[in-house]
Amino acid sequence: MRALSSPLRLRVLRLCAFESRTNKELAQLLGVNPGTMLHHVRTLVQTGYLAAEAERTGAQGAREVPYRATGLSWRTSMPGGSPVLIETFLQQIENVDPDDLDTTWMGLKLTPEHLKEFRQRLYELVNEFKERGPDPDGETYSFFSTLHPDENPPALS
Questions:
Q1: Structural domains of the chain, ranges and CATH numbers in brackets
Q2: What band does 94 get if pLDDT is binned at 50, 70 and 90?
């Protein structure tokens, strides 16, 4: 759980989901010191969330190790992880043009049976697209959804 308790580590996993990236590339993309990034990358490798790929030679002839997300985080439960997921999401959209955000927020009033059905169907839809794998010629998108009890007291009669 500690490996996934950092918004920075979750962002690393997103960046390495569809293409391998080196420690240096990750540090540049996320605006952090390469030494700090190396600590986070090593934590993710040690816990199985990132895997090192074959070494390669970089532009300056230096040895580079690219890393790829293993997909393990998809199957990892994060009890109490909502705050870190929300913080990660907020960091991800910080520089996104508001016109490019397609946001949906709605209220629902459901019986326990319909709530169970909603959760199951949403999970099945997301899992179906995850299992398909990435489209080789596709663009990358991020999806974030949260379902929570609404602190909305009933109207007074």
A1: 2-96 (1.10.10.10)
A2: confident
